[in-house]
Design a protein that fits this description.
The protein is of the alpha/beta class. The chain is built from 13 helices and 19 strands. It has 2 domains: 280 residues, Metallo-beta-lactamase, Chain A, CATH 3.60.15.10; 111 residues, Transcription Regulator spoIIAA. Strands 6-5-4-3-2-1-14 form a 7-stranded mixed beta sheet. Bound molecules: zinc ion (2 copies). The site of one zinc ion (ZN) has 7 residues, from loops.
């Protein structure tokens, strides 16, 4: 799954100020002078700027909007002012990415999840161009009952020129129970209540063997083990935890019941939950990029070099994270394709007793589908082979006219030797060798 950040501020949009731009330019020029960067060379300027991190860029001023793409499906979380930016990109079909979704042509569809309806999480929706194109459809998921009503109310004439009923796209609403699990777009999504005025909900998204958690607008008032346990369980083993880091620790103690947390509290919870990456999110509108950078440094320092400590990142506009974990070595998978009447099957992972049924079924299905009985098994991705696996291969040899093994790793070949079965199979070094053997047979 692909995560993209369109708005990462909390409370109210906070455009970067002219004097901040000026300061960034001055600081960059000073650094370039110190490092004696050749300012007549475009390439060296670009490399230098890339290393300046937020000093040459900005966290951005838009309020919350995050997208998750799973395959060709689009899931949007919250409609803060960042969703306007997302809409601009989706409407520009000169971009193949936007064309794939089809929103400019009224053929688009997306899932839209709301954490809650505070202004900074809904205010961008009227400005999201795809909702004004007839034919586009949105499946809207929410835990608060009143979400459809609030979205309509913010478009009443006193607040906005266009009325909710004038929206051209169609919205299908889905009320979620607290803690409910839904399957959408190939992802499994669950929710948990966060302590926040009027309640907010965190979402756990599982897809592509990866886990992303959006936990914005949440206060962790009691930090006792028993109080935070339900959260560390919900956030457990996440690849990414997007965390409300609006306050400093000090503020979170002083501003009790305001409903927000801090980066260091996130660091503790992320570590307890075995989270891989902690993303600081819902930045205070009053925080400058320099201040957010400082919090980022302090959070890294706090976690130190501890083993298993999560990596810390600042959620900024334009940040993209691809989450896709390779199959664990203990799992077994098969991919196949057919070429010139030969089925090429790639076996990956551990070919043991738990894999034999899957192998047998897959082989039978492929023989049926492709109507051929020449099979080449590519074995370079196998991590382990047991006697049960060899038994399955011996059985396969009986159902297939030609069964060739190719790219057999050394440790796997040794298992064939120990079982005294190397002569049972036609084993080839690589694909070229097996193809020339197959061709000479058919000549
Ligand atoms: Zn908020
Ligand atoms: Zn809120």
């Amino acid at each position: 799954m692909l995560l993209k950040f369109w708005g990462t501020r909390g409370s109210i949009p906070a455009p970067v100020q002219p004097e901040q731009v000026e300061q960034k330019i001055i600081a960059a020029l000073e650094a370039a002078g110190r490092e004696q960067i050749n300012l007549l060379n475009a390439q060296s300027i670009r490399e230098f700027a890339a290393n300046l991190s937020l000093n040459a860029s900005t966290v951005g001023g838009n309020t919350t909007c995050v997208t998750v793409e799973v395959g060709d499906e689009l899931i949007i979380f919250d409609a803060g002012s960042g969703i306007r930016e997302l809409g601009e990109y989706l409407m520009d079909e000169s971009d193949p990415w936007a064309k794939k979704f089809g929103f400019a042509r009224g053929k688009g569809h997306a899932y839209l999840f709301f954490t809650h309806t505070h202004w900074d999480h809904i205010q961008g929706l009227p400005f999201f161009k795809p909702i004004h194109v007839p034919g586009n459809t949105f499946d809207v998921y929410h835990v608060h009952k009143y979400v459809p009503d609030v979205l309509a109310r913010q478009m009443e004439q006193e607040f906005f020129p266009l009325q909710y009923h004038q929206i051209a796209a169609s919205f299908q609403y889905h009320l979620l129970n607290e803690g409910a699990q839904v399957e959408v777009a190939g992802a499994t999504i669950t929710n948990i209540e966060l302590k926040h005025p009027g309640k907010a909900y965190a979402y756990r998204v599982e897809a592509d063997n990866a886990i992303a958690i959006l936990a914005t607008d949440g206060e962790y008032k009691s930090l006792d083990y028993t109080s935070t346990m339900k959260y560390s369980k919900f956030y457990a083993n996440a690849d990414v935890l997007i965390f409300d880091a609006m306050f400093s620790v000090r503020e979170s103690f002083v501003k009790e019941d305001w409903g927000h947390s801090s980066a260091l509290i996130g660091a503790d919870i992320a570590k307890e939950a075995n989270v891989k990456r902690l993303l600081l999110f819902h930045h205070d509108p009053a925080s400058t990029d320099a201040e957010i950078m400082r919090v980022w440094q302090e959070t890294k320092e706090y976690l130190g070099q501890q083993q298993g400590a999560p990596e810390v990142l600042v959620a900024q506009e334009g940040l993209e994270l691809e989450l896709n974990n390779p199959l664990a070595a203990s799992e077994f998978s098969i991919n196949d394709h057919v070429e010139k009447g030969v089925i090429f099957m790639t076996l990956s992972g551990k070919f043991g007793a738990h894999a034999t049924e899957k192998f047998r079924d897959h082989l039978a299905h492929s023989l049926q589908t492709y109507q051929t009985d020449k099979v080449v098994l590519k074995m370079e991705n196998l991590s382990e082979l047991t006697i049960a696996g060899i038994r399955a291969l011996v059985d396969a040899r009986r159902t297939v006219l030609t069964l060739a093994l190719v790219s057999v790793p050394e440790n796997i070949y040794r298992v064939f030797e120990l079982a005294g079965t190397t002569d049972f199979f036609a084993i080839y070094k690589d694909i070229d060798a097996v193809l020339s053997a197959l061709n000479s047979h058919s000549d």
